[in-house]
Write a structure and sequence with these properties.
By secondary structure, the chain is an alpha+beta fold. The protein contains three helices and eight strands, in the order αααββββββββ. The strands form two sheets. The protein has a four-stranded antiparallel beta sheet with strand order 1-2-6-5, with no helix packed on it. The termini are far apart.
Amino acid sequence: MKRHYVWLIWDTVRVAGIELGNHFAFEQTAWVARTRESMALLTPRFSSNRAVREYTERHYLPAASAYLERAANKGAIEVELVNLRHALEQKWSAIRFGEVKVEGDGERHVLEIQMYLDDLDPQAVRVKDYADGISDGDPMRQEMKRLQQMEEAAHGYVYCAQVPATDYTARVIPYFSVVAVPLEAPQILWQR
């Protein structure tokens, strides 16, 4: 039944083409040219060769390098990583944000945040500012610089960053050079 409709449509188009003469042939040629141009432009972007090359460069080669780094010295880095995970599990719930200061001139803001890390090594975390992307753009992430240890708190630190004037939220994430956050270390604390 469907074949009948296809042939009926094709016959109608063919008859219309005969009636319109060269105009139909011109439209058909222009359509084929547009189709070929689109294929020429889009094929490199959607080709399997490009996808394999991109995945290899972005994901597989870095993963292989990370594996080799972790396997070196009989997995010594893994021992450090297990110790970090235990420390994070034990101490993460005590981490908290303190006072937040924001100063700005309309175009840029200077953020200063107090962080209380309990007994956690400040090298084991990174404090970052996060903002959703504008107009479907990529999210913006900026690491804050640890300025000083607070005098009144043994494990309190002041972090600072200069950011464009937009809505930023600070967050604390675990840090270890070979750890994929949040895949391997899911702890993330957001400023509220």
